[in-house]
DNA sequence: AATGAATGAGGCTTCATTCAT
DNA sequence: AATGAATGAAGCCTCATTCAT
């Protein structure tokens, strides 16, 4: 009893994330410019003015959406990479599965689409995203590729470029889901999609016997 | 005689596409909502009012940008597919090279980013784009995959899903170029990227010898 | 006993004037409309809500600022006028000195600027100020002028108009101090200013010898 | 006929001053913060948006009001001072009469009140006003005082301070007119006011015979 | 009595759209 | 055909005011 904080206080602390979450949905759906703060407020169940108790401006809210959505990500992946003991390809599988569970299946899955759509209008934020998300994600994939090439499991490929090619289908999957997937006839089954991607990777990366 | 027209007339007929071209750049850079018609007009060297002589509204201009950008595409690809006589993988290579030459290297390369960013705000346009671009592009890839599977050159894979996985890296390449590529440290070399992608595909699609 | 009250109680009773005092500074500095209650509260060291325990509205606070600032004024001047026995000009000097000590040198000195800036937005308040401050101040000056004219010390001048001319430089002095005096090069020395003003008055009012 | 520009053009050129004039009235009446641009637009007979064709912001409009109101002033005064040949006091009279005709009786007469009310919120503008109006006005009065003191017509007084005392009643007259004069019982007759002021000055400045 | 989170009306500003020239 | 001045709806943001604690 005594260690339960009063609801008002709990609300105060929870508010910023509630507002960010509401904003994320709308930014992903409509883009930054086309999203009205009134709609964000309404979705969060507060008034327009309340947003300004927690964020200085629409732009500050946008930054918080990205930064907050980015925080919980990519930490576990780094641990997975450092602890892994099996084959390089198994590591790759684990990393992609982890990303899928932590991002692809959560509400943060809309962030890649949002960042690609808005990065030119928010260059500093794009840079921040690159440093804190993309670079770290790529490093994880790099560790698997390097391990596989070093052990002879994978063929010799340019690491940096291969990273791009490996992660592109996965990014495209979530981008697609938050964009064209609203059209008829464009449904994609993520399970099957990932299965095919992994199949192609498994065989594509495998060192060709001489 | 036939290919010479008076400059005045040529100008008049060319206006709409000049305006569309100017608009494409800005829509790709800023998104639909954040693009100001004043800037479009200025880039095209006309006044704001002139835009309305050719387009009913900002939305109509946007549709024209997409539709104009779509017209010259994918026609040649279909001919390539129907005339092809070599291996299935060679066909795939030709198709991707054709797309790259006709879209990836032109100013239309920004359209995929634009469509993913705006499709939810323009569902009918997204549907149109899907029917006229995506479906046809996928059909071309499908014809190569089907041919390869039928001949035993490719392993058996779900066609629709494999199409997705095959084209995703290419779409991602151009999306990247018009978004995060503005950041430092994010440069991608398209030649090398395509080379790696094709390598992985070649080996990944190849039927595993029993 | 009589002059010691418990701090708690003193505080409670002192609150309204503390708040008025804080508000006066800001109203003088920024004007009524541009002053934010949040700033008033902060300067008084209370929360915004507390203001509403003592004042019904921003407008009520403004009225209180003026009315509070008006209370301690002009009482002594009337006594001075009624008790005076020397020359008319000496009375005039005493009255102006009294005003300067009671208003010109206190924090109430900003009120003339504030009233001139806001009187049109608060006509009833302006009327109140006129009745309770201006009219009484003018009456004091009038008594000195009348006495001097009656005794032949001063030349014959229209009393009402002369009052205006006599007090204008003094009002202007405090208005100036709270407005343009923030600029470089606009410093005025009140002592010297008053000395010159009195010199001009002494000679200007003196009846010309025939 | 041929040298009459088309109405549209004439309007375009006349607009800024029309808007400034409308804004001056309202700024003087209500102050900067309390004046709504919608009211300014309405008084000028245009829409709110039109203001932004000519002024970047409310603050820019305010600056223009002051700067435009300042331009036509004080030029003639300087010529009067340089051409004058009579007594010093006659010069002083001419200068004050000129100021009255050029400012005191025009719609610019509200500017002194406006500047005193807002100078603290617009320090650079206040500085500009000081440099371009106040300093020049004071210099004109200074030239009359110096001439009178040098010739023995005036008593010896500190020039700078005397300037203040000489112009204060005149400034106060227009400030009063645009502020408290809205109250009952506060009417001032400018002619009589100036007459008394000049009488006091004439006798007050005059060198006392030894 | 005091707080400060929350509200929502209202103002400044932008920009798609219109229309007289 | 082309212009660009003008409009006014709509969005961001501020801040006086309220009220649960």
Automatic annotation (TrEMBL), chains A, B, C, D:
<dbReference type="InterPro" id="IPR011075">
    <property type="entry name" value="TetR_C"/>
</dbReference>
<feature type="DNA-binding region" description="H-T-H motif">
    <location>
        <begin position="36"/>
        <end position="55"/>
    </location>
</feature>
<dbReference type="GO" id="GO:0000976">
    <property type="term" value="F:transcription cis-regulatory region binding"/>
</dbReference>
<protein>
    <submittedName>
        <fullName>TetR/AcrR family transcriptional regulator</fullName>
    </submittedName>
</protein>
<dbReference type="InterPro" id="IPR036271">
    <property type="entry name" value="Tet_transcr_reg_TetR-rel_C_sf"/>
</dbReference>
<dbReference type="InterPro" id="IPR050109">
    <property type="entry name" value="HTH-type_TetR-like_transc_reg"/>
</dbReference>
<dbReference type="InterPro" id="IPR009057">
    <property type="entry name" value="Homeodomain-like_sf"/>
</dbReference>
<dbReference type="GO" id="GO:0003700">
    <property type="term" value="F:DNA-binding transcription factor activity"/>
</dbReference>
<dbReference type="Pfam" id="PF16859">
    <property type="entry name" value="TetR_C_11"/>
</dbReference>
<dbReference type="Pfam" id="PF00440">
    <property type="entry name" value="TetR_N"/>
</dbReference>
<keyword id="KW-0805">Transcription regulation</keyword>
<dbReference type="InterPro" id="IPR001647">
    <property type="entry name" value="HTH_TetR"/>
</dbReference>
<feature type="domain" description="HTH tetR-type">
    <location>
        <begin position="13"/>
        <end position="73"/>
    </location>
</feature>
<keyword id="KW-0238">DNA-binding</keyword>
<keyword id="KW-0804">Transcription</keyword>
